[in-house]
Each structure stands twice: as structure tokens, then as C-alpha cells.
Fold this protein.
Amino acid sequence: MHTESHTAGDDLVIDQQTIRELREEGEGLLSELVEMFIDEVPGQLATLEEALAKGDVGATRLTAHTLKGTGGNFGASRMAALAFAIEEKGRRGSLEGAATAFAQLRTECARVRVALEGALTAGAGG
């Protein structure tokens, strides 16, 4: 039986093994990366939303690619997959359905942030 102190929901949002590895990499690395996530992701989402509104496939592709990498840093597979889906739409030059994927991505980014903040709190507690 698999039992952990964190919630199963967080496991679906970020990969706990990835978080452990980041924590073990060095003092403060995880908190530094989480801080970057908190500082940068809202701006990236705003840029992506604007690119989608303008139908700018190039900016959509590049911004979605950045968000995909950010999600990948934490093992946030759903966030990365949603960003990748939007990136692919930009690559193909058709943003059909991208607004729906963007709404899901925005929600998932918020879930990732909460999970990351929880991981920091859990790490600080020991």
C-alpha cells in the first residue's frame, strides 16, 4: 500500500520524485525555481492569451513552448501536455481549439502553483 504525507491530488499535478531531486540538488534551488514560476508564469499566460487573441501563431508557439518547459521542470505533466498542444497548433498554423486548451492551461498552472507552494512548505517543515 502506497501512503505519503502529501495529498494524492498533488501527485497528479507535480511529480514528487522530481521535486525531491530538485530539493536534493542544493540549498534553495527548489524555492528559487518556485519563485521564478510564481513571478514568470502569470506574464507568460498573459502573453499567450494576447497572442491567441491576435491570432499570432508564432508568438503562440514560442510562449506555449516556454510554458511547456516550465511545467517539465517540475514534472507537471498535464501543464506541459496542455502547453504542448497549444504549441503544436501554433506550429501547424491553426489555432482552432486553442482557446479551450488555454483555459485548461490557465487552471492547471494555478493548480501547479498551489502544489509547488505546498511542496515548499512540506520541505521547510522537514
The two ends are 23 Å apart (CA to CA). The chain has six helices and no strands. The chain has a mean pLDDT of 89. The CA atoms of residues 68 and 80 lie 4 Å apart.
